[in-house]
Every structure is written in C-alpha cells, then in structure tokens.
C-alpha cells in the first residue's frame, strides 16, 4: 500500500512538473494557492473560489492554484492553526500561550460546533488571521521561489535532452 501511495505521489508530481506554461506562471499559481490556503480556513468553500478567481485574474493555472490550497488540509491544520494563532497573538500583543491555544484547538476538533468556534473569542480570531496572513506571505513566497527553481531546472534539462537527441539524429 505504501508503494502505491508513493507511485500516486510521483505521478501527480510529474504531472505538475510537466504542466505547460512558463516557470513564473506555474510558480505564481503555487504561491496564490499557498497564500489562500493559509488565510482562508478549511471547510469554507471560499478557499477554492478565491484561489481560482485570483489564478484567472493573474493568468496562471487555476488547477495548480486550487491544488496548492491543500497546504491546509485536515492533517496539517492540527499544526498550522495553533502556530498561526500563537504568532498572530504575539504580533497583536495578546497574551495567548501556545499551550492554551493548542488545548482550545484540540477541544474544538474533538467536539466541533459553530457555537464552540464562536466562543473562542475575537482575540483568538484576530490572532489567527494575523498569523495566517504572515505565514501565508512567507509560505507563498517560499513556494514561488522553490517552484520556480524546480520548474526552470526541469525545463532546462528537458531542452538539453531534446537538443542532444536532435544532434545525434542529424549526425
């Protein structure tokens, strides 16, 4: 089963790498997806809609932008969201401790309701969105540069292979 999962990851990675478009456009789509994936909480359909609209606006690949929003998924939010809240609380000057934030998130995850979410309070929400915005920018920028480097390198190697093949064919 583990090999099957690795194979699936490899297939999707190769599809991503082989996507048509300039390295800038592909990297920009990843950056948009990462940013939106951080600042809009999961479970809200707006994450998908906003990522696709921004991708279209910036003339990038909406599919890649949508896929990149999955940086926040049910598994990663268990780590990301408390970190967002902690960093945001430090920026806005709130005294929320990481232990308190983590404890409240665990309670919320085990017994979710909209009332319990609203009862977290405005400081909690404000610290979340400030931290998410900061991390969204950082992760988006990192995602852009890493993706740009990977795609550029892949396209250079691909072009070198094509040139080498043509030279062998012509000689």
Secondary-structure element sequence? HHHHHHHH
Helix content: over 70%
Query: How much beta, percentage-wise?
Result: under 5%
**What is the number of helical segments per DSSP (H or I, 4+ residues)?**
8
Major pleated sheet? none
Distance between the termini: 47 Å
Low-confidence stretches: none
SS-based structural class?
mainly alpha
Total number of beta strands: 0
Description:
With 171 residues, this protein is mostly helical. It has eight helices and no strands. The protein has helices at 2-17, 23-39, 46-57, 62-68, 77-92, 98-110, 114-118, 122-170. α2 packs across α4 (62-68) and α5 (77-92) crosses α8 (122-170). The longest helix is centred in the C-terminal third of the chain and has 49 residues, at 122-170. It is elongated, with a radius of gyration of 20 Å. The protein starts with a helix and ends with a helix.
């Amino acid at each position: 089963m583990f090999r099957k999962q690795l194979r699936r990851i490899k297939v999707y990675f190769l599809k991503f790498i082989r996507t048509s478009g300039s390295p800038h456009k592909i990297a920009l789509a990843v950056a948009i997806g990462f940013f939106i994936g951080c600042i809009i909480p999961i479970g809200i359909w707006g994450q998908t809609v906003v990522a696709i609209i921004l991708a279209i606006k910036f003339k990038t690949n909406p599919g890649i932008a949508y896929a990149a929003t999955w940086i926040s998924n049910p598994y990663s939010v268990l780590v990301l969201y408390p970190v967002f809240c902690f960093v945001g609380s430090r920026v806005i000057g709130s005294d929320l401790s990481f232990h308190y934030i983590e404890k409240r998130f665990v309670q919320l995850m085990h017994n979710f309701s909209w009332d319990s979410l609203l009862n977290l309070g405005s400081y909690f929400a404000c610290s979340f969105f400030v931290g998410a915005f900061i991390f969204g920018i950082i992760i988006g920028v990192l995602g852009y540069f890493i993706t740009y480097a990977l795609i550029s390198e892949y396209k250079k190697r691909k072009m070198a292979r094509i040139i080498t093949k043509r030279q062998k064919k012509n000689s």
